[in-house]
Design goal:
This protein has 217 residues and is mainly α. Helices cover 66% and strands 0% of the residues. α5 packs antiparallel against α7 and α5 packs parallel to α8. It is elongated, with a radius of gyration of 53 Å. 16% of the residues are buried.
Length: 217
């Protein structure tokens, strides 16, 4: 049995041991490195918060109301870049009306017939005072034919004028705006009917075409 006892360190040796630097990792080193490694996390969180704040500002109802009051549509995705163009319904209706008037005038309108019959009645009343056969024919038939030709000629003139307005409208409208093909075709048909009616009824009115018959004295 070894009874030898280790001698206790003297006071200078104890002080030297306390002053010797420790080569291992200090106990608090891990705690210090951890915050250093995560220094980028607060910056990323700040950027995310800024993005969220911007999105909330964009969806802010107050901002949308202000845009609507200023005359801007927040949900408008460029619709103003393609403004709505006129549909041309009025021009189409005018072209059809002109063609109808020209056709009715050539075939004989009800208004012209009624006015002609009225003039015939007036001629029958006036023919009682007629002294010659020519005056009687003019009173009974000539005036009525002239009134019929006059009314139908006016309808033809109206059809011609209306068709001309339809064809000339694009020249005074928006640049590059033209009528559909069928509208132009109907308008040109109305012009043809109108010109034909004006010529025909004009010649009839002045007795150049189908003149009144003459009776022997």
């Amino acid at each position: 049995m070894d009874t030898t006892k280790t001698a206790a360190p003297t006071a200078p040796e104890a002080d030297a041991a306390e002053d010797k630097p420790v080569t291992g990792t200090p106990a608090g080193a891990g705690d210090t490195a951890a915050p250093a490694a995560g220094t980028d996390r607060p910056d990323a969180e700040a950027a995310s918060d800024a993005t969220t704040a911007s999105a909330d500002a964009a969806e802010d109802p107050a901002a949308e109301e202000a845009a609507e009051e200023a005359g801007e549509d927040p949900d408008d995705d460029g619709a103003d870049a393609f403004p709505e163009r006129p549909t041309g319904v009025g021009s189409a209706a005018a072209a059809l009306t002109a063609a109808g008037l020209g056709l009715i005038a050539l075939s004989g309108s009800w208004v012209a017939r009624v006015i002609g019959e009225r003039q015939t009645l007036i001629g029958q009343i006036e023919s009682a005072n007629a002294t010659t056969a020519k005056e009687k024919i003019a009173a009974l038939y000539g005036d009525a034919w002239h009134m019929t030709a006059l009314v139908n000629g006016l309808l033809s003139s109206l059809a011609l004028l209306l068709a001309a307005v339809v064809l000339a409208a694009p020249a005074f409208g928006a640049p590059g705006r033209v009528h559909p093909t069928w509208v132009r075709s109907v308008s040109w048909a109305a012009v043809a009917l109108g010109v034909l009616g004006v010529l025909l009824f004009g010649l009839m009115y002045f007795d150049l075409l189908v003149p009144l018959p003459t009776a022997a004295e």
